[in-house]
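step 4 of 6: structure.
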Amino acid sequence: MVMEIVCPAGTPASLRAAVKAGAHTVYCGYADETNARNFPGLNFDRAEMRAGIAFAHAHGAKVLVAINTFARAGAEPLWHRAIADAATAGADAVILADLGLLAHAAAHHPTLRRHLSVQAAAANADVINFYAATFGVRRVVLPRVLSVPEIAAINAEVEVETEVFVFGGLCVMAEGRCSLSSYATGQSPNMQGVCSPASHVDYHEDNGVLSAKLGGYTIHRAAAGEPAPYPTLCKGCFTTEGASGHLFEDPVSLNAETLIPQLAKAGVHALKIEGRQRSRAYVAQVVRNFRAAVDAQAAGKPMPEGMLARLTEGQAATAGAYKKTWR
Amino acid sequence: MQLTVGANQFFWSPEDWGSSYTALAAAPVDRVVLGELVCSKRLPFYQDRIPAAIETLSAAGKAVSVTSLALITLKRERKLGAELVGTGVDIEINDLSMLAYLPEGTSFSIGPLVNVYNEGSFAWLAARGARSICLPPELPIDAVRILAQLGRRLGVAVEVWGHGRVPLAISGRCYHARRQGRSKDNCQFACENDPDGLDVTTLEGQDFLAMNGVQTLSASFACVDHQIEVLQEAGVTGLRLSPHTGDFTAVCAQYRARIDGHVARGAVADALLAAYPDRHLSDGFLTGARGADWSGPLP
């Protein structure tokens, strides 16, 4: 069986590029706070979503609609409408994290397939089986806190499909359970669908040293000629007891392409690529590489290695929690 | 308005852990949540003291709950969660995995690390048996107000994070161990010397965060001294106070006096800053532009 490649699309052009490059499935969201990549200029309006889904279906690909923030108290109809519109537009599934939205979708759209977002951080077989039994969830996107053997153990105990991240941005905290960004900026992944937002980033140059601040907190300092990565909070440089460094995570991104054979053996159904904020050229290139890799895997051929290295953030990549020593 | 003492988030020696609950028995609080929230590797050190602590607190008239872990992944952590059920003590759920173990019809409490952001989640949990819900610390006052009103209609107590370093994130990775060049599995209890967490400052020396094993907290102590009237008006039924070193019983007494109108607005903050001169305070998640903000006067 070929593992399913699930690709990000922040725009209709990216969706078409991903489908043409061989994506089995594309995920995207509406242009509002209902999705966890609520960035300016990204995402789909209703007509674009309908057209995107029709295009994908015409080319044999599926579309998943991410409605994976936690609905704001007093504004739940915005999230309920997103689910209803995704159903009407012919979405192959919705990706949800919020208990209330899962219950709503199960009650009001029983035939609409439900996937559990990584934002729900379902990290063991018992809670996955609970979501399956209670809300009819059919696929779970696993949080990036698990090693490959742990993923294999989960798959041995659950009926639902599992999907894992293999490429792109890497949360080092359990997803959906992190308020670092709102502590510093007032904007959070759970509520506004943003993390370390560009609107709160400030750069200062002093004697050739470039400081990057987020919400007034210095996250990075780079001397002239040094790389100055985007000041994502958990990948910043901080100090404890006089020693400074990247205390939580280096400015790296995830690349698990060499683990595809192990992930296949662990029973993983789908491989997810992060990056709805990325260009369509980037998306197309990543999709082509991963499609070639899963096709090679299914045919029992060796993995094409290292092709994606230069696309990773800051030129450095990690296999993250999939290797147990990461913890 | 009631006072609930939340589970100790830090790794204390078994002696300090035990004596803190003996002291709390005499504190003017209504409910105490105890047990291990952050890291299952800490539990064996003080697990045998939990029954005596429950007995002491219950005898002093406190309602007692035992917390689940905040992030359940390993087989022994699942077993630990399943074993909490049926002990007869109220369970505070801080990882939804617990719903897989709790039989329908059993009542429970929801802790601050479960994502209850809206009416749908709140009502679903209430229907499943939640009798008390501590809202996520990042919720703004507008959301708190809506959920507190819903709680009143459904007969569910609604708590808000009131005091102590704010839990901001939980990870699979142990940062205390990483700092020592070790992995979580070989941590050698790198967190044991930081009973309030390890201060994390910016490169410019600005207080920012605190490290506590797999958990990341705010450097600031949350303090809702300036929000008491707003929270009472919103219908919030309880404040969650998180234990720290120092005279925590006195801290509880200050909040009690403030809620009962025996001291003026600002008195708790003043007392805290006098007792913890290196700390600063925050209440920004409720009414500020960001979590780190403080609505009181700056020192």
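step 5 of 6: annotate
 - Chain A has nine helices and 16 strands.
 - Residues 4-170+252-326 of chain A form a domain with the TIM Barrel fold (CATH 3.20.20.70).
step 6 of 6: archive
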